[in-house]
Automatic annotation (TrEMBL):
The chain crosses the membrane at residues 27-48, 60-82, 94-114, 134-159. The keyword Calcium does not apply. This is Histidine kinase. Keywords: Kinase, Membrane, Transferase, Transmembrane, Transmembrane helix. GO terms for molecular function: kinase activity.
Length: 377
C-alpha cells in the first residue's frame, strides 16, 4: 500500500525534473549579496533622512521590516540559484524557466507585502491601509523581485561558464599531454626497429663491430628511457644522443670512410647548453636521411648543419643524396617519423616553427627552424 502511494506521488511529480547539477555557492557571492542589500538599505535610509517631505518614521520597526524583506530577497536569489535554474533552464526548458521566474516573483512579492503588514501589526498593533497603494507597490516590488532573480541567473551563468572554460582547458591540456606521450612512444620503436636492422646486418656478416653497435644502442636506449621524459632538455644533451646515433650508423660503413661520409657541424653565437629543446625532436630528421639516403655517395652521404644565431633561434638542416628509384618498384613504406615530428611541432611550438622539405634530382634536404620570429620572416 505504501509503495503504491509513493508511486502515485512520483507520477504526479514527474513534471519537476531532477536538477542538472549542483554548483556550490562561493563565499564571495554570499558576501556580495549581503553588501548589495546593505547598500540598498543605506541609500533608502539616506533618501528618507534627507527628504524634508518624508513622513516615514525611521524607528526600530522600519529596521526590522527591512531586515525581513532583505531575508526574503536573499531567499529569492538562492531559490533561483539552487532550485529553479538547475531544474529548468539548465535542462533546456526555457519556457518553464520564464514561467517559474514570473510565478516566483509574484509569489515572493505577495509574501513581502504580507510580511511587511505582519511586522507592523505585531510591533505596533496597527495594520497599514495599503488599498490605494497596493498596485503601485505590487508593481514596484514585482520588478525588484524579477531583477533579483535575473541577477542570480547572471551570476550563476557566469560562474558555470568560467567553470566550463576551466574544464575544457584542462581536458585540452590532458588531451595534448596524452597525444604527445603517444607520439613519443611511437618514436622509440621506430628508432629501435631501424637500429636492430643495422645490428642484424653486422652480425650476419660476423663483423667485429657488432659488440660496439650493441653498446651504442644501449647508450641510446638509456637516453630514451631516462632522459627524454622531461618536457625540455639542453640542446647539448640532445646532440650527445644524436652523436651516439651517428656513431651507431657509421658502423655500417668502412672505418676509413665513416667520419667523412656522415658529417655533423654545430656552429653559432650561442653554445648548445644555452638552448633548450623538446627531447627526441631532431632524431626523426636524421633517421629519415638514413632511411632514404644513399650511404655510398661520396665525399659526403649525409651532412647535418646545426646553427644557433641567438638564444631564441635554432636552425637544423639535414642534407643527403638519394638513389634514383626504379619506377617499376613500389614506393618504400614509411613516413611515420616525419609525420610524428610535424604533429609534435604543432603541439609544442605553435607558430614558432617552420619545417621545409626540398626534393631535388638525386638530393633531399630538410630544414627545421625554431624560434619566436620564424613566421615573421
Amino acid at each position: 500500500m505504501a509503495s503504491s502511494t509513493a508511486s502515485k506521488w512520483a507520477a504526479r511529480l514527474r513534471w519537476w525534473p531532477q536538477a542538472a547539477d549542483y554548483t556550490p555557492i562561493p563565499w564571495w557571492v554570499h558576501l556580495l549579496l549581503a553588501l548589495v542589500l546593505l547598500a540598498i538599505d543605506g541609500l533608502l535610509y539616506y533618501s528618507i533622512r534627507t527628504n524634508p517631505k518624508s513622513t516615514l518614521p525611521l524607528d526600530v520597526v522600519w529596521f526590522v521590516r527591512n531586515a525581513v524583506l532583505d531575508a526574503l530577497t536573499a531567499a529569492m536569489f538562492y531559490w533561483n540559484w539552487a532550485g529553479l535554474f538547475p531544474r529548468t533552464l539548465a535542462l533546456g526548458r526555457v519556457q518553464g524557466y520564464l514561467a517559474g521566474v514570473l510565478a516566483s516573483a509574484a509569489g515572493f512579492t505577495l509574501l513581502r507585502l504580507a510580511t511587511s503588514n505582519l511586522v507592523y501589526h505585531v510591533m505596533k498593533g496597527v495594520d497599514p491601509d495599503l488599498r490605494e497603494l497596493f498596485w503601485p507597490l505590487f508593481a514596484g516590488l514585482l520588478l525588484g523581485s524579477v531583477a533579483t532573480m535575473l541577477a542570480s541567473l547572471a551570476v550563476r551563468i557566469t560562474l558555470d561558464y568560467l567553470r566550463g572554460q576551466r574544464t575544457r582547458h584542462e581536458l585540452e591540456r590532458q588531451h595534448l599531454l596524452t597525444e604527445l606521450a603517444m607520439l613519443k612512444t611511437q618514436i622509440n620503436p621506430h628508432f629501435l626497429f631501424n637500429t636492430l636492422n643495422n645490428i642484424y646486418s653486422l652480425t650476419s656478416r660476423k663483423s667485429d663491430r657488432a659488440p660496439e653497435a650493441v653498446l651504442r644502442l644501449a647508450e641510446s636506449m638509456r637516453y630514451l628511457l631516462y632522459d627524454s621524459s622531461a618536457d625540455t632538455v639542453p640542446l647539448s644533451q640532445e646532440l650527445a644522443h644524436l652523436r651516439s646515433f651517428l656513431d651507431l650508423q657509421r658502423l655500417r660503413l668502412p672505418e676509413a670512410e665513416a667520419e667523412a661520409a656522415i658529417v655533423l657541424h654545430v656552429h653559432g653565437a650561442v653554445p648548445p647548453e644555452a638552448f633548450s629543446i623538446a627531447p627526441l625532436l631532431l632524431l626523426p630528421l636524421v633517421e629519415n636521411a638514413f632511411k632514404h639516403g644513399d650511404l655510398a655517395a661520396r665525399p659526403e652521404a649525409i651532412r647535418i648543419e646545426i646553427e644557433l644565431p641567438d638564444a631564441d633561434t635554432l636552425q637544423v638542416t639535414v642534407h643527403n643524396y638519394v638513389v634514383a628509384r626504379d619506377a617499376a618498384l613500389p614506393a618504400q613504406p614509411g613516413g611515420l617519423g616525419l609525420h610524428n615530428l610535424r604533429r609534435r611541432l604543432e603541439l609544442l611550438y605553435p607558430g614558432r616553427h617552420a619545417l621545409t622539405v626540398r626534393t631535388l634530382p638525386g638530393e633531399y634536404a630538410v630544414t627545421l627552424e625554431l624560434g619566436s620570429e620564424v613566421n615573421a620572416r
